[in-house]
Task: inverse folding
C-alpha cells in the first residue's frame, strides 16, 4: 500500500495505518534524533512524543505532501525544544545552587528583579497582538492549536506572530544577556 493511502486511512483513525507509518519511519527518525541529542533514551522519548503528536494531528496531515519531511521537521523542532528546556533548567538549577551555597543572594535577587523588569519592558514594546500571542505561548505554555482556538486566528498567523515577537524580544534583550533573562523567565514559570 502506498504512503498516500496510509495517510488517508490515518486521517480516519485507522490504527493499522498508523502502525505501518510508525514502522516505516521509526528507525530513521531515531537515528536522526540520536545524532542531534547524543542520547538514545531521550531520542526514544521524543520519538514517542512525536508519534503521539502525529496521532493527535492526523486530521491536519496533508497526504499530498512529503510525510517524511513533515516528521523530520517536527522531530527536529522537538529536539531543539527539549535541548532549550534542558538548558533553561540547568541555568535555573545552577542559580538555585548558588543561592543555597550562600552566594550573594541580595545582589542576585536585584539582578533578577532588573532582568524581569527588562523582560517586561521588552514585552511592552511589542504590538498588542504579538505580545498577546507571545505571552500565551512562551509564558502561559499554550500550544499553537490552543492559541489558534482561543484567538480565532490561523496556525500560520500564530506561527508568524510568535516568530516576529521572538525576534523583537531577542533584539531588545540582547544587550542585557538573553540567556540570563531566560533563567528569570524559567524561574517565574516554575513558581
Result:
Amino acid at each position: 500500500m502506498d504512503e498516500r493511502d496510509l495517510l488517508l486511512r490515518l486521517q480516519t483513525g485507522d490504527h493499522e495505518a498508523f502502525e505501518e507509518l510508525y514502522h516505516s519511519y521509526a528507525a530513521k527518525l531515531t537515528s536522526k534524533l540520536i545524532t542531534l541529542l547524543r542520547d538514545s533514551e531521550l531520542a526514544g522519548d521524543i520519538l514517542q512524543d512525536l508519534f503521539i503528536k502525529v496521532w493527535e494531528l492526523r486530521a491536519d496531515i496533508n497526504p499530498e505532501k512529503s510525510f517524511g519531511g513533515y516528521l523530520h521537521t517536527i522531530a527536529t523542532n522537538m529536539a531543539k525544544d527539549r535541548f532549550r528546556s534542558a538548558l533553561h533548567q540547568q541555568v535555573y538549577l545552577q542559580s538555585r545552587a548558588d543561592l543555597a551555597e550562600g552566594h550573594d543572594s541580595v545582589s542576585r535577587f536585584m539582578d533578577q528583579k532588573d532582568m524581569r523588569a527588562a523582560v517586561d519592558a521588552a514585552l511592552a514594546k511589542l504590538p498588542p497582538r504579538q505580545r498577546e500571542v507571545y505571552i500565551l505561548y512562551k509564558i502561559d505554555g499554550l500550544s499553537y492549536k490552543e492559541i489558534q482556538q482561543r484567538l480565532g486566528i490561523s496556525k500560520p498567523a500564530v506561527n508568524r506572530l510568535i516568530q516576529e515577537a521572538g525576534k523583537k524580544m531577542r533584539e531588545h534583550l540582547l544587550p542585557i544577556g538573553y540567556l540570563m533573562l531566560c533563567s528569570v523567565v524559567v524561574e517565574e514559570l516554575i513558581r
Notes: Residues 104-190 form a domain with the Arc Repressor Mutant, subunit A fold (CATH 1.10.10.10). Residues 102-110 have pLDDT under 50 and may be disordered. The two ends are 51 Å apart (CA to CA). The first helix runs from residue 3 to 11.
